[in-house]
What we know:
By secondary structure, this protein is of the alpha/beta class. It has helices at 25-37, 55-68, 81-89, 102-107, and strands at residues 2-8, 11-20, 42-53, 73-77, 98-99.
Amino acid sequence: MNVNISKENKTTLIEVSGRIDSTNANELGEALMTEINGGGTQLVVDLASVDYMSSAGLREIVSALKKVRGKGDLRLARPSERVLEVLEMAGLDSIFQIFPDQSLALSSYK
């Protein structure tokens, strides 16, 4: 798994690629928490290049959402078909704002 973090105006873009499973989900969680603890309140996690996400990965993004809520939000962009199915099965598609396009997710904060 690779995590690439960049800033788009006041929004933090976190682009994730590869597999997110129990062996590396904590790395994603640490990256998200570092951004939140550093004052990031507008987060977009781009999942277009994630081909697999386990419950450990889901737990990390839900934990980050809980941490940022109240001061900001965490939104998801372009989840792959497999990842979207996992989000839907877990009922998380009703908790997260999910966008089909990275630019829509970024502009949703404006």
